[in-house]
Protein 1
Amino acid sequence: MDEQRAAYDLLVVGGGIAGVTTAIEAAEAGLTVALVEREPSLGGRVARFHHYFPKLCPPSCGLEINYRRLREHANVRVFTLASVESIEGDSPEIEVTVCVRPRYTNPVAFDYGEWAKTCPVDCEDPFNYGIGRRKALYYPWDNAYPPRWVVDERAVDDPAFREWAQGDPAGGIDLDQRERTVSLTVKSVAWATGWRPYDASKLDRLGFGELPDVLTNVIFERLSAPDGPTGGELTAPSGREVNRVAFVQCAGSRDKDHLPYCSGVCCAVSLKQASYVRERLPEAEIHMFYIDVRTPGRLEDFLQEREQDPRITLHRGKVAKVEQVEDGLAVTAENTLTGDRETVTVDLVVLATGMQPTAAVEKLAARAELDENGFFIQDDEPAAHYGVGTAVRPLGVAETLQDATGAAMKALQMARRS
Ligand SMILES: Cc1cc2nc3c(=O)[nH]c(=O)nc-3n(C[C@H](O)[C@H](O)[C@H](O)COP(=O)(O)OP(=O)(O)OC[C@H]3O[C@@H](n4cnc5c(N)ncnc54)[C@H](O)[C@@H]3O)c2cc1C
C-alpha cells in the first residue's frame, strides 16, 4: 500500500556513519529529516569492522550514541530496506518516490536467536562479503538499528522455509508483506551513499578469487570480528595454519588502470589489522609491502607503534605477483627506488584495496555533478543535491563525521531559503 505524501526539510540517502550523523545534526538544529537506507540496518561499512581507529573501539561504540540520538529525536523518520526510485522538481519542492522492500517480520518482543538456529534454509551472507552463510531468518548484526529480525527475500518462496515458518513461536514472521511506495517532498537531498571495496578480481596476478588464502582488507575485518564467520579466529580459508601474513598496500590504488587516487586510509587500516594478527597470533611474522606509508595527522602514532614490533617488517616495494608455492604464497615485490626484486613466502595475503564511491558503480537519481571517479563534486554555493562523507572523497570516520556536520549546515541553508 502506498503512503500519503509527507513533507520533510531534508532527505538523506544512505544510513552509514555519514548519513546517520547528517540526519541527527540536521534534526537537532530543528529540521525534519527522512533517512533512506537500503540495507535492513543502519551503520554502513563501519558496522562490519572488528575495530576502528584511532581508538580501536568496536563499531558499536560510535554507532550506539548515534542510535540513541536517533531514538530520542522525533524529527527523523528512518526507512530501511528502502531506495530512491525517482526524483522530480527542484528545491523547495523536490518530489521523491521511495520504494520500501518487505522485511517479512513485524516487531514482537521475542528473541528468535535459538529458534532461528533450527531454520532449514540458509543463504550466502553479503554482510560477510560472501564468506560463510546465514540462516534465512536473521538478525542483521549485534547492534542492528532498527533492532529487528529479517527474512532473507531469497528464501521467501522456498517451500522448506515456508513450512518451517509456520511453526513461528511468536507470530512475528509475515510472509505476506509486500513492497510499498512512499512519496516525499523535501527541500534538499544529502547523498551519503558511501563507498564499496574496489573489485580485487580485476587485479592481475595478485591471486584474488583464484588463491583461497588471498583476501581483501574488508574480508579481513570480518574474519577478525567475533561476530564474523570464524568467530574472530584467524584461520586461512584453505585450512592452512597461519604463521606469516602479508599486507599488500595500494592494491589497485594510485594506479591509472584501476583507482588513480589514494584512498587515504588503507595504510592505517593495514597497520590496524596488523594489531589484530598480533592479538590472536603473538608469534606471527607480519610483512607490509608499501610504495610509501601514508598515516596523516595523529595516525603517525599508529605507524610508530607498529615499527617497534620486531616481528613486523615493512618492505618498500610494489607487489608484482602472488603465487601459490609448496609452503604457502610467494609475494614478489619490486623496490620502487632501487628496482630490486624481493620474494617473501607467507600463509595469508591481505590486499589493501581502496574505496570506490557507490556512484561510480551504480546510477543514482542525484541531480549533481560527479567527477571522473564517481565522487560528488561539491558546489561552493548551497545546492539542492550534495554529497556527504565518502560519497565526496575517501575519508576516515573522524573526517566523515566533520563532513556530515557541514552537510547539516547546507541542509539548514536550503531549508531557510524557502
Ligand atoms: C578495510 C577498511 C577499513 C577501514 N577502517 C577504518 C577505521 O578503522 N577507522 C576509520 O576512521 N576509517 C576506516 N575506514 C574508512 C571508513 O570505512 C569510512 O570512513 C566510512 O565507512 C565512511 O562512512 P560513509 O557513511 O561515508 O559510507 P558507508 O559506510 O559506505 O555508508 C554508506 C551507506 O549508504 C547506503 N547506500 C549506498 N547506496 C545507497 C542507495 N542508493 N540507497 C540507499 N542507501 C544506500 C549503504 O548501504 C551504506 O549503509 C576503513 C576503510 C576500509 C576500506
Protein 2
Amino acid sequence: MIEKVQNLIVGAGISGAVLARLLAEAGQSCVVLDRRAYVGGNCYDYKDPCGVIVHKYGPHIFRTDNKEIWDFLSRFTLWHPYMHKVKGYVDGQEVPIPFNLNSLYQLFPQQYAARLENKLVENFGFNKKVPILTLRKTQDKDLSFLAEYIYEKVFFHYTLKQWGLKPQELDPSVMERVPVFISRDDRYFQEKYQAIAANGYTALFENMLNHPNIKVRLNAEFSAVSKEYEYERLFYSGPIDEYFDYSFGALPYRSLRFDLRKMDLTQYQSAAVINYPNNYDYTRVTEYKHFLPLSSNKTVVAFEYPSDFKLGENERYYPVPGEKSAALYKQYLEAARKEKNVFFFGRLGGYKYYDMQTAVKDAFALALRML
Ligand SMILES: Cc1cc2nc3c(=O)[nH]c(=O)nc-3n(C[C@H](O)[C@H](O)[C@H](O)COP(=O)(O)OP(=O)(O)OC[C@H]3O[C@@H](n4cnc5c(N)ncnc54)[C@H](O)[C@@H]3O)c2cc1C
C-alpha cells in the first residue's frame, strides 16, 4: 500500500530531525527515513554498560552564540554545561590547543616567551585568532621562528595524518578552523552557550522526533522504500552524489576509524581530548567520561585514525574542500536544481563541514522557505 505524506525526509540526523520538527509543528505530516538503526546521524551516542556515554562518530560538544538555536534545542534536552579544552602533546608536554599564550609559556623559557608574547600582541592584538598560514608570513625574525615552530610541531604532521595532505595543499578554510590564539583562554571554543546533552544526544533527537505529525522509519534505505510513499516534497540529507548515482564521480571525503578501548581506570588522561600531532599514527584520543560526570572505576577511550573514505568500507566524515571537489559539487548542484520539489540539505546534501549549530541554522532557513 502507498502511504501519502506531505514531506518525506531522508536522514534522522540533526538536520533531518530539526526540519521534521519545524514542519510538524506547522501542521504538516512528515516521514523521516534513516538507513541506520537509530536516530541522531553522526551525533548519535549510546551508553556503554559501564555507564559512560560514548559518541560513536567522534566527540560532539554543542556550542552556539545564537539564543534562538539554544532555546530551540533546550526544549528537547537538559544540558550539562561544559567548556571544552583540548591539549596537544608537544615536545613531551601537554599544552593547550589551539596554541595560545599559555602553550607558549609552557614550552619556552619565560623571558623569551614574554618577548614573543609582546611581539604577537603588537602585531596581531590581544585575544585575536590568527591562522597559522598568516603567522608564517610575518617578517619579524622571532615571530617567524615561532611560526615555524608551531607549524612544524602542531600543524604539519597533524595535517598530514588528518588529511593526507600538507597544510598548503589544503583549502585555507580547513587550516583556519584551528588558529593560533593570542590569548590566555584555554577553551577550545568561545561561544556563549557550550554544553553536552545531559542524557545524551540520541535522547535529544528522540524527543525532537516525538510528535504526532512525525513518523520515523529506521533501517530504511531511501532507494529501497521510497516507492512506498506518495509525497509532495522530498528533503534529502544524504550524500548528494549518491542520490544521482555518482553520475559525475564520487565527491571526496576523509574518513575516521575509532579504536574504542574500555579500561579499568577511573581516568585515563587529563582532558577529554588530547591531540598527538607528532607521535603515533592516531591523531587524537578522546576520553568520554570528561563530558558527563560519572563515578565509575571504568573509562572508555577512543583512539582516532584518519583515512580516505572508501564506499562500503567506512563512513563519510569530512568533505575535502578544494577546487576539484568544488567543481564536482557544482555539477551535482546544477543537477539538483533541475529536480522538482527535491531539496538537498545537511552536511552530506550540501557537501560542507557543518557543525551542529550550522546544521540547525540551515534547517531553520529551509523550513522558513517552505512555510
Ligand atoms: C569527528 C567529528 C566531530 C564533530 N564534532 C562536533 C562538535 O563537537 N560540535 C559540533 O557542533 N559539531 C561537530 N561535528 C559536526 C556534526 O557531526 C554535524 O554537524 C552533524 O552530524 C550534521 O548532521 P546532518 O544531519 O547534516 O548529517 P548526518 O548526521 O550525517 O545525518 C545524515 C543521516 O542521513 C542518513 N542517510 C543518508 N543517506 C541515506 C539514505 N539514502 N537513506 C536513508 N538514510 C540516509 C544517515 O544514515 C544519517 O543518519 C563533528 C563532525 C565530525 C566529523
